[in-house]
Design goal:
Chain lengths: 256, 256, 256, 256
């Protein structure tokens, strides 16, 4: 019977579709509840829906914990359950329902409660177990991890350099905007990502000149992560297609 | 005679060029009519031009409906005409002239009339039947449909995550700007697409830090659709070129 | 002697370097003259420099016209000179010195004079004849002309569609900003190129939703020209490198 | 013993990790010291930390100078030390500690002292000697130097052209914003890099039309450096991977 339950929650059944829909509804509910007028009118409904979601997700968690010995190959029945508990999805499953249970056992002040409630947002990552395409993206990101961390490091150095220079150049003219290098870093990020909100920008001729040089040269460097993710992703998609086609040597018929 | 009409409206004749020009003029007229001074002065002209356009497009629609049995291969004469009526271009042809005919039969209030008039904008898609290059682009978009919908889904998750976090972080400091997650989503879109109008942006140190991280990491993810469309398009253009060249094996002369 | 002059002005001599430097100085002078204080103080110098430049460029033009029969292969001596006069560089050479000569023969009002003076800016394109790398870029742009014009056409349709929709959605809420589709087009360009000055943006919920969808979907389409130019350019650079390397068949030694 | 010292400072020892950490802490200290409140409270700490850092970096510099004859292959002991002193890293090592020593020997006014102190920022480049991945990026940038300088030149011409045109178009309507071509250049950079702070933008219809055309066409050209750096970088990463795999001819077993 345990095997049947395991297959039921892991294979493409109506249970998966139900969980999938429930996650989407949870996200929608989180968004709608942020509208004060809506939350005020339908407070009871939001709370009932949260209660229902937690019950479902709790049952799902217990079932997954129970069938964990079928999920992993090696180890004792107990060690497999620990293995599930500390796996990424195991933790996500647990933490995303904790904001409901914790306040029942421990008295929290409002500030902590509010942060706790944010953990419900983790439910969105539960989609990762259900959606195959999300798994692809995550594995692509994992593959290009070393390149990404390298370019993020370079981008970080560039941000530090440009913000420090701009702080020294603009601080005299705009002591309130370029107050410290922290503010200057905010300018650097807005400029190098080309977002440019317009809340902070250089006004001195030297500052504008420096900012122009930083923008033209720096955008290329900050574009690297974008390029790497894009190319890694496209590469993966092409590899999936290629694996179907094979080249046949015209001489001896060997495939290569 | 029906065959002659069918060829006349579907082959590269002066009729196609006339329809093509008329569509462009319709778009121009729609733009010019939005200028109140211009519309006030030439109101009669705009209405006469609309009348003329609707007559031409109506004749075109009737002719296409009449010759539909030459356009499709299978089915009875009647089923072919139904087939045309519910095809994409058949619907575009019909809906883009409806705003003229409907008010003659049904009394609408002004609000509905205004929305109805927007359907005239669909005439721009009639260009798709005439321009071969537009057909290429649409088929490219169709080819990379699955990749596009996947990345749009990921972008959507990213937008939800970042906007919910920013709402919790900035709501206290800017209750009027980050009023609800809807407002926060507007900020997310403006930031992750790097448009950055500057009407809404974080002001707290934590908000700026979070926003910086979101901008640097997230832009890469939202750039994926761009990369996919670009690569799909360039791929298509290269394939068109390659199809002309063939590699000859240097050993046995076999082409492969 | 004519052949010597032809080689002198077309080969890598001090004359070319002199012309190159003079063009750069002309651009700098144009920029500096736009500063009222600087122009007021050194007005005589700017006019003397312009006089000197026009004399040099005029001599260059006369020499090129004189040696045009050595530049082209076919045709009579006279037809070759006409050929040069109507060539791109021949026209640039002529038009960029015309703002000096025309007012001597025809009385112009100030408005026309000012536009005429702008033609001096064309001198910057004279660099194209001297710099080999600029020629490469121009030929790359020529190669991908058809793809570029196609995507520009698609971008144009997208701009029209989005601006018309936004005009109908935002016109009631912001009659002064989204006054007509012209204003709305300005918003579309600022949004789809992700410049986002922040002088015009949607404020209604429907407008923000529509704008978000347009931004996310549309940026991909408008990024196409970028992608095409980039790929064409990189392709050219790679082809230049490849032409040196050749693959040798491991079986029979034939190169392919 | 000299050899042991040389190996100690150049091989993967705790000394390298210590220097690495010290550089990061120096950057953090520079950022924190820009916060007036923090600097006011912990002034003594910042000065002691700077003293400590300078002592360590000075010892490192002396050791590197002393062991320079083991680092280079050719030349006399003295010429090798000169070679190190004028090498990039030798100069960075020296200049980044100079702001401490120079004021001890020469009396400087405050303005010069402030600029001198900026040289401490150069310490961040000392990371380049320690981090292999930073060396990769720098060599990639060196490889595509010619393409980069070419596209920067083209971007420069585009900036000049667009800013001069916009100056003539917008100067009458906004004499304070588009005051001179310098201001206009600032607009060009903000527009073509798509940063768009919103402090300066066209308001006349002609200016908006011109600006739209410049934005759509120009962004492609300014995106070239980005594309080149990206492709060069990805190319390098792929080459590193490829060097491990080799193709075997299916016929005769020859690798190629």
């Amino acid at each position: 019977m345990k095997k049947k339950v395991y297959e039921f929650i892991n294979e493409d059944s109506w249970f998966q579709k139900f969980i999938y829909t429930l996650i989407i509804l949870n996200v929608l509910s989180l968004i709608l509840a942020s509208y004060k007028e809506i939350f005020g009118m339908y407070k009871v409904f939001f709370e009932l829906f949260e209660l229902f979601s937690v019950i479902v997700f709790s049952i799902e968690y217990v079932l997954r914990l129970w069938t964990a010995d079928l999920h992993f190959e090696k180890g004792t029945s107990f060690s497999k359950r620990i293995k599930f508990s500390v796996s990424t999805y195991g933790l996500i499953d647990l933490i995303s329902i904790l904001p409901f249970y914790l306040p029942l056992f421990f008295p929290f002040d409002l500030r902590v409660l509010r942060i706790l409630r944010l953990f419900r947002l983790l439910r969105i990552f539960k989609l990762g177990r259900l959606s195959k395409s999300l798994q692809t993206i995550m594995s692509v990101l994992k593959d290009s991890r070393s390149e990404l961390s390298l370019t993020l490091f370079v981008a970080f150095i560039l941000l530090i350099l440009s913000s420090t220079l701009m702080f020294y150049v603009e601080n005299d003219a705009q002591p309130d905007k370029f107050e410290n290098i922290g503010q200057s870093l905010w300018w650097s990020v807005a400029t190098l990502t080309t977002v440019g909100y317009g809340d902070i920008y250089p006004i001195t001729p030297l500052g504008k000149l420096l900012s122009s040089a930083i923008a033209i040269i720096g955008i290329g460097v900050l574009a690297l992560p974008t390029g790497i993710i894009s190319s890694a992703f496209i590469n993966r998609l092409e590899m999936d297609k290629k694996s179907e086609k094979e080249c046949e040597c015209p001489n001896c018929g060997t495939k290569f």
